[in-house]
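#help-structures
NK: newbie question, is this the right format to request a structure? protein is 5-formyltetrahydrofolate cyclo-ligase
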Amino acid sequence: MSAFDTSEEGKHDLRRNAAARRSRASRRAGPDAALRLADNLLHRDELADARMISAYWPMREEIDPRPAMEALHARGVGLCLPVVTGPDQPLVFRRWRPGETLVTEAFGTSVPDSMAQEEVPDILLVPLLAFDSEGYRLGYGGGFYDRTLEKLRGDQGALAVGLAFADQYVDLLPRDMHDEKLDLVVTEQDVRTF
């Protein structure tokens, strides 16, 4: 995608601008955005047969998946959270239930402790900085979700659901051959399938 500055400085600027846009989107969406997101997500047919869903514990100004997580748990769906094990490695997932204590890992994310059972999700709820019209996401630059999705889709056809504020949408994002496309994006306003 030659229209984008793909230098490290260009990518850093893109992520910084996307984070600022997400911050504005969070304020505009209002305090009930997480509940509206949960409502939009929980009515999706794609979740009907879910056995194990990976979510994330929100940080910075990511849209909050916790109301959806609690509702999924109440339905009997298993939940797990992603854990970074090292650079250039796919994520692993540890079982989590509402109310269980989390620990803070090196990247500042909250995760189940190392004794929690490892799981393999069939659906991943994925945070992002921005998403585009073709289902690509802008993440934080570590490539963890791309590596993980490539592996899980190859092993079992896992489904990737981006969670975002509607105003995080952009027409087009830069991508390379390793970027994994989302299957759908759920926002507080709507659902987009790709």
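mod (FA): yep, format's fine, and the tokens are attached above. The chain is about 30% helix and 20% strand.
NK: thank you!
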